[in-house]
Each structure stands twice: as C-alpha cells, then as structure tokens.
Specification:
Radius of gyration: 20 Å
Strand order of the largest sheet: 7-6-3-2-1-13
Order of helices and strands: HHHEHEHEEEHEHEEEHEEHEHHEHH
Shape: globular
Number of strands: 13
Helix content: 40-55%
Distance between the termini: 18 Å
Strand content: 5-15%
Oligomer: single chain
Length: 368
C-alpha cells in the first residue's frame, strides 16, 4: 500500500470509530469505495486522468480509436446516433465501446421525455417516445413520475446506456420561458419532490443521473444561440431555485450540470459554468460533494464568451469535474497543456477524477 492509501486508510478508521455499530457497515462500504477509487487514481498517467474529465460527443466510426487513445470518461449520444439500429445492434455497439475502454465509460444521453428524447423517439426502441414530466404529473402526480423514471432507466440500461442526463430541476411556470417545455411546470416545493423522487428511483435502478441546470434557468433565453444574463436577486435563488437542487443532493445526486447563464447577483462577469464563485456556492452553501459537469461547451453562450481562450481550461479552473464537449481533441489537448505549463495543478485534476471514479464505483459502472 502506497503512502497516500495508507493515510486515507488511517483517516477512515478514525472516522469509523466515531459512529455507532449500526452505522459502521454502511461507512465501511464507503471506505471500500474511497480506497478503490484512490487505488485506480494512483495507477493512472496524467493523460489518462485528463481523458476521464471528458464526456465527448460520439464521433461515429472514430469512437473506438478515441476511447483507446484518450481514456475518455464517457460518450454523449444524440438522436441521430441511434438511426439504423435496433436493440440488439445498439447493445453490441455499446458493449464494443466498453470493451475498448481501460476504465468503464459513461454512455450518456438526454432522455428527459417530451421535447428531449434521444432514444425513445425511435420506434425501434419504444412504440411512443417518453412523455414530458409535465404531462406525466398531470396524469398521475409523483407516482406516475416514479413509474416513468423506472421504465426509462430499465430501457436505457438494457441498451447499454448507463447515464441519463435528467431530471430538469429548473422551475418554470410561464409558457413563454425557453425552459418551460422541459420543466415540471410546478412550484419549488413540488419540483423539489419531483427531483428527489427521480434521483432516488434512478439510483435504485443503478443508472447515473444529472440534475440540471444549476443555479436554476429561470426565464432566460436559449444559451445554445447566445449569451443569457439573469438579473434576479440572490434571495430568489436561495428561497426558490436552489430548493430542487438541495432536494436532489439529499436524495443522493451523483452529478449536477451547470447552466451557461451569466447570473449577475453571483458573478456578473462569467457564465455560471465558468464561474469559480458559483461553483463555491454549490460546494460550500449547498454542501454538494459529487460530480459537477458543464452543459455543452459548444453552445454559443460559451464560444462567444471564451472567444480565443480555451473554454475547457476555464471550466476546469472554475471547478467542473466533467466537461461535455463536441470538439474533444481540441479541448483535451488544451487541458493537458495547461497542466504541463502549471496553469492547472495536477492535484486539481486528481480531485475531479477521484469524484468521477467514486461515482462510477457507486453505480457499479466500475466493478468494486
């Protein structure tokens, strides 16, 4: 056992001693996860660690080479990537990708239901696409939401997909809002119950979730197409928008996705996804210890803000653990170069990789 693992082991033993016997079994399970994550981390090269930070857009025929060469954390699939596939061929494709990876991959989709349904819009996988959270809630409340989350998770897992970037925790009650069609469309209390229920159900099924879009989208414009500036006071977030995220954290959320909105009351200069200040709010004020990921760094809100600077380097320095990217090679090389130049400390990379490994171990994506 190397020095780092020995220190962690001693710390965890002291930590366990402070708890009653009936809690120690659970804590020992966590100890095993932490030690296994550290063991994997200590055996990784810098290049392998940087690769783990990326959820890369599936590139098609070049995917196997990307997985083998860069040791990426995962792949992100869109609706077009499922054309000309049936359940059998899709399972085979995903299994081939997993076999090529030195560390098991996150195989990710956005399957929110309603307007965003990458898989179920194809009749090869489901007769009808999954319905929106709002429609489900209207039909049968939270019990219907839970039923749907279970069915959705089981379908995706059966296809070799282990990461669904849902649920949407944004609060929107106005049909004029960009995010309205993807939200539950209810108040903070009901949205919080919805988020907690979906996270708990997905955890029980063993599929990764991502609550989005912190710190809360509000009525802002679509950041796919430009910069959005949120002028709401901080109190509106603390008493409303933060609540569904807090509920998700308490339910065991493994990942939270950041928006690209510029939220003036928190950081008037940077999009939330690139803001160290807003990341500190999630970590320190909401007490979140899991994986933080960006929304896609190819959106106009980021490309117009970053211009000639590296959005990926800015994202890592802000505190993100997992970067959702389209132009993977460019972003990977930028982060690797930043570490080698001392712009990003390698210990900062280790923090993120450690969280990603613990998350994968918790879900069984990496065998314990």
């Amino acid at each position: 056992m190397n020095k780092m693992l020995l220190i962690i082991s001693l710390f965890l033993l002291l930590f366990l001693a402070a708890y009653p016997a009936n809690a120690q079994d659970i804590l020992r399970q966590r100890e095993d996860v932490f030690l296994r994550a550290e063991e994997i981390l200590q055996g990784m090269s810098l290049k392998e660690k940087v690769g783990q930070l990326f959820l890369a857009r599936y590139p098609g025929s070049g995917a196997l080479d990307m997985v083998k060469k860069y040791h990426i954390g995962g792949l992100n699939f869109f609706a077009g990537d499922f054309k000309n596939h049936d359940a059998s061929s899709l399972r085979k494709r995903n299994a081939t990708l997993q076999e090529a990876s030195s560390i098991p991959l996150l195989i990710g989709v956005d399957e929110e239901g309603g307007t965003v349904a990458r898989v179920s819009r194809h009749k090869a996988f489901r007769a009808e696409k999954f319905r929106s959270p709002r429609a489900l809630f209207k039909e049968g409340g939270i019990p219907r939401i839970v039923e749907d989350a279970k069915e959705k998770s089981e379908l995706l897992l059966s296809l070799g997909i282990n990461f669904n970037m849902a649920p949407v925790a944004d609060i929107s009650t106005s049909s004029s809002d960009f995010i309205y069609s993807r939200s539950l469309g209810q108040d903070a209390k009901t949205t919080s119950l919805y988020v907690a229920s979906v996270v708990e159900t997905m955890n029980q099924c063993g599929i990764a979730s991502a609550i989005k879009h912190f710190p809360g989208y509000g009525s802002n414009r679509d950041t796919h197409n430009g910069v959005a500036r949120d002028k709401r006071p901080y109190d509106s977030f603390a008493t409303r928008d933060f609540l569904p995220f807090q509920a998700g954290i308490e339910a065991g959320a493994g990942c939270i996705m950041f928006s690209h909105n510029i939220v003036k009351c928190m950081d008037a200069k940077r999009p939330a996804s690139l803001s160290p200040k807003i990341h500190r709010i999630l970590r320190e004020e909401l007490g979140y210890t899991g994986v933080i990921m960006t929304d896609s760094l190819s959106m106009d809100a980021i490309t117009k803000f970053a211009r000639k600077k590296s959005a990926a380097v800015m994202a890592v320095r802000a505190g993100n653990d997992l970067l959702c990217v389209k132009e993977f090679t460019k972003h990977y090389k930028a982060v690797l170069a930043a570490v080698k130049k001392g712009i990003i400390d390698e210990s900062r990379i280790d923090e993120s990789v450690r969280r990603i490994l613990i998350w994968k171990l918790d879900l069984g994506i990496i065998p314990s």
